[in-house]
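[job 0412] stage=complex_fold ligand=flavin-adenine dinucleotide status=START
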Amino acid sequence: MNIQLSQSSVAVIGAGIAGLACATELVSLGYQVTMFDKGRNPGGRIATRRLAESSFNHGAQFANARGEDFGKLIVRLAVEGHMAHWPAASGKRDIVWVGAPSMNALPRAMMAELAAKGCRLLNQTHVGWVSADRKLSLFPAAATSPGFVSRLGGEVVGPFDAVVLAMPSPQAVTLLAAAGHRFAAELARARYAPCWSVMASFSQRCDAPDLIRSDTAPLAWISRNSSRPGQPNSPETWVMHASAKWSRDNLEENSSEVARLLLEQFVAVTGQRSAPEILQAHRWRYALVEQALDKPCLWDEATRIGACGDFCLGPRIESAFDSGHTLAGVMHKVSQKQDLF
Ligand SMILES: Cc1cc2nc3c(=O)[nH]c(=O)nc-3n(C[C@H](O)[C@H](O)[C@H](O)COP(=O)(O)OP(=O)(O)OC[C@H]3O[C@@H](n4cnc5c(N)ncnc54)[C@H](O)[C@@H]3O)c2cc1C
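[job 0412] stage=complex_fold status=DONE, emitting structure tokens
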């Protein structure tokens, strides 16, 4: 991997919306930021998967912008054509924003702006551990399994002047385990619900509403993915999310069986008669925050390690954004006061 680091740099681990928001603010304040993500693309749970000729938004479905900072970003990206309204999901108290043509347009646009300002993303790079003196161990993501990354090893980089963990709290706990960091106990207070998501395409259109939600059925969310702005109407594509309860009860089930079981539910609800041309399930082990820390971010001055993400404020894209944005401000304040980095 052989990574060249500049002096006075900040490592942001996780290029989901929290990590992107944190990096955006740090870069605008003049810091040198390097991002690391085990995924192929930025976005984390704001995800789009391409299968055959279709693209499916199998993670976050839409964003609301209730606060000023996220609102400004979304409006600017909408003007540039990266975000749009999705009429099928509107009608609630908030305006519903989606990436155009797919959800990953939002993280891609943010990453493109960061890259233009010199921020590097090392993708497909799994960080195995973070030490208390801000060194990281890196593994090529393709080579990793949970057992593999838990061993001390990999290419060691750093020390960085500060390190930000921007990922679901259970994953941050694993990263800090070797350092015995005091955050581990605090991070463990947050709780996530899992979610099985199924992507399906059909050659025939069925006569069902574009969006069906339920609080009680095994399928909590069924949406016609092809009704999103900028999506071709044909073939007809659908995304369905199992409820937290069903997902938890079936967490270790194999993905083909999950796809089959949830397709049965889908057919019962929508009356779709044709067989799916594409059918694939994806498990989100940490999908929606059930219990947040109720504080905007975590920052430890002694080690200069911070943490941000939806686990801080709640189960929404905007909460994760606010957490990352706030952490960057806290770091800047400390850095200015103490001339640390
Ligand atoms: C199925 C589903 C539906 C949802 N629907 C909505 C919705 O409609 N509206 C809404 O507002 N929110 C929704 N959400 C929630 C929303 O997606 C999240 O709250 C938000 O995207 C979290 O962003 P984040 O940056 O905190 O974490 P993430 O998006 O999870 O980003 C964390 C990043 O860290 C990386 N990472 C983790 N560990 C490592 C490591 N060791 N080394 C390197 N990289 C690592 C991951 O690859 C990932 O890219 C949904 C989520 C799911 C799963």
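The CA atoms of residues 155 and 300 lie 25 Å apart.
[job 0412] exit 0
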